[in-house]
């Protein structure tokens, strides 16, 4: 029979370990933001059940036809879910893509890239490959040398130093080329992972692209239907 006290202690230790790792990874994000002088950046802690919410619940407070905030007409339990005060289009994520065609004799071809894309869109691997080929000006990259797929979660964690739902393009353990999906450029600012599961980063799109020397291009496509159920990633 397992001692309940031992189980509870183990759970507390595990939670503390996760919390400490989160603090370290968020600290890396902060240091990188400061070193790059990204003055628009802001970090916000999300509620523990943030990823149980729909995208609309995470994003904004709507207004009715009279211009009155619907927050005044909603019960507190719903208002609290309008957390980030933005449009759903501004909710973005950083995805690590792996070039599975990469070989050690191809130093001019990136093996991994970090792609910033909207939650309401999905990455098109063929478009990522084309953008990488077109962006190479010094050495020609052939079609056979690029085949980008989502990197496995453990690979992403190893490269970035961030756990699932906490990946940020700032403060990654390994410097990776950053790609920004073209529709993101139309936005004034976006929300990204802030280094930990419960930390979100708000940043100006212009400063994000410039400070990371990111490549911008058409690498995504709209989802056929807007997600109505909670999404994680």
Automatic annotation (TrEMBL):
Q: Which Gene3D superfamilies match?
A: YbaK/aminoacyl-tRNA synthetase-associated domain
One Gene Ontology MF term? aminoacyl-tRNA deacylase activity
YbaK/aminoacyl-tRNA synthetase-associated domain ranges (all copies): 82-206
This protein's source sits in the domain of life called: Eukaryota
Instruction: Give one Pfam family.
Output: tRNA_edit
Q: Which PANTHER family match?
A: CYTOPLASMIC PROTEIN, YBAK_AMINOACYL-TRNA SYNTHETASE-ASSOCIATED DOMAIN-CONTAINING PROTEIN
Designated name of the protein: YbaK/aminoacyl-tRNA synthetase-associated domain-containing protein
Q: What is the lineage of its organism?
A: Eukaryota, Sar, Stramenopiles, Oomycota, Saprolegniomycetes
